[in-house]
Design goal:
globular; single chain; 4 helices; DNA binding; 79 residues; mainly alpha; two-stranded antiparallel sheet; 2 strands; 10% strand; 63% helix; Arc Repressor Mutant, subunit A
Amino acid sequence: MPTPSMEDYLERIYQLIDEKGYARVSDIADALEVHPSSVTKMVQKLDANEYLVYEKYRGLILTAKGKKLASDLFSGTNF
């Protein structure tokens, strides 16, 4: 079960990918007003929980699980 913080990150990543076609650590940090190192730590947690796939220096993509949760959060259906 994702934490509220994980949900915030997933939702913002989903929005960035929808708007730009990609989401970089720096974009996420700017959007959430946090340090890039905090984003990296959270992205690694989200990767470990199979919500996204993160490759250092290459970017990230949402998995089907992450995309579904982020889409639900973004649209307000939230389970």
